[in-house]
Each structure stands twice: as structure tokens, then as C-alpha cells.
Amino acid sequence: MKTNKLLSILFFLGFIILIASCKKDDDEINPNDKNSITLSFDNKVGDKALVLTTGAYINNVSEDFTVTTLNYFISNVSFKKEDGTVVKFPNNYFLIKQSDANSLEATLKDVPAGNYTEVSFMVGVDSTRSVSDLSQRTGVLDPASYGDDGMYWAWNSGYIFFKFEGTSSVVPTNATGKRPFQLHVGGFGGMTSKTANNLRTITLPLTNAATVRGNIAPEVHLFVDVLKIFNGTAQLKLAETNMVHSITTATPIAENYKKMFSVDHVHNDAN
């Protein structure tokens, strides 16, 4: 009996040591290790999931609306470590589209191992890339590749950073008998007679550190609340503001959607 009890105690102690060893290995940072961090964008309307076309919603001034299109560019992502070091990814551009589930995850590759406590990103396409040669604007930045997305203004050679479209009963009826709204935001500053800069940088603390390791590729889950478009720095009513295609008039919308983004949680699952 004593032998069996001793063996049980030794087994239990060995198990505890093994668990502690594994945890220590996960906590240790190998400076040569790299992995990815994925930003997962969950578009919502308040506390409701965003459903295109069929979803029925009410904004802060009691206007009903549905959403038919929600597209926006994410670029210039950076992550801050707990020691204050910032790791930047300036040449990664993502087009988030509610209509395309595959686009809702933006993955940054070759992130150095570390504990990251903050994420920053730009909504839009920076001025340097916006005016670069077409050979440097490929993938989601290719002006000819959008199809029905229409995320490029040919009339002023600029990207539409943010496109929000839908219908509302408070919007005047058009020639086809529909009541559509179109809120398009662009403008990187410095353009002839159109100097408004509607690029906006979002900086968010992470709810828990993203722990990049050789075997851990974190996922940062973000909520994106489109109700903030109506209620932020400026109060927006669809009855009054329903067709925005001007850089200058789009500025209040850009100010409002700075508040759309929040971090819900971070997954640090081993891969």
C-alpha cells in the first residue's frame, strides 16, 4: 500500500512538473521565432450582427435603414510590444467587404515573437501608395480589379476608403422608385483644389496580450459598429445626409467611423 501511495505521489509531482515546464516553454520568447497575427473584423449594428439587404436597423435618431454594401480599406498596420517596441507593416493593404467572408480576416505575416499589447491601423490608402505607379498597386489596390466593388474614383484618381450603402424610408425617392443612401469617403490630402485628408488611424489596446511564438499565431477579434457612423463627433441624419461623394463633405463621416472599432478578445492558440 505504501509503495502504491508513493508511486501515486511521484506520478502526480511529475505531472505538475511537466505542466509547469510546458507553460514555461510557452512563456519563453525566442527572438528568432516569427509567426502571424490575424485581425478578424466582425461588422455589427450596435449589438446585432450586420446582415446585408435583409437586416432591418434603427439609428440613434430613430431612422430605419438596411445595408446593402459595407467596404473599407485597412492599411499601415502596426503592433506595439509590452516593452514599447513597435513593429510596422507598411506594405500590407486589405479590402474588408461584408459581402465576402474571406475578406473579413487580415493576416500579417512574419511578426517577430513577443507579447503585443496594442494594435494600430489606418482606414484608407496612404498618400504615397495612392499616387504610386500602377505597377506598385496590385491586388486589392488595382483600380481595374474591383468589379462591382467600385472602390476607386476615376474622376479624381483616388481610392474610396470607406463605402456604406443601403436604403431608408427617410431618404427621398429616386427616379426608379427606390430610397437609397450612399456614403463614400476618400481623400488623402494634397490633391489640387481638394486638400481634405480623410485618412484616419485607429489605435486600440488589446484586451489581453497577443503572444506571438513559433507555435502561436494570435487572432485579434474586432467589433466594428456601423451605428457609430451616425453618432460620433458629428450627428448624422440620413434624411439630411444621404448622398456623399465629395471629399470635403465626407470628413464628418471619417471622424465618426474612428469610433467604430473595438477589440473584443484575443485568441492565443497554438498551431
TrEMBL record:
InterPro entries xref list: MbnP-like_dom (IPR046863)
Protein name: MbnP family protein
Matches recorded under PROSITE patterns: PROKAR_LIPOPROTEIN (PS51257)
Pfam families assigned: MbnP (PF20243)
Protein origin, superkingdom: Bacteria
Domain Copper-binding protein MbnP-like as annotated: residue spans: 35-244
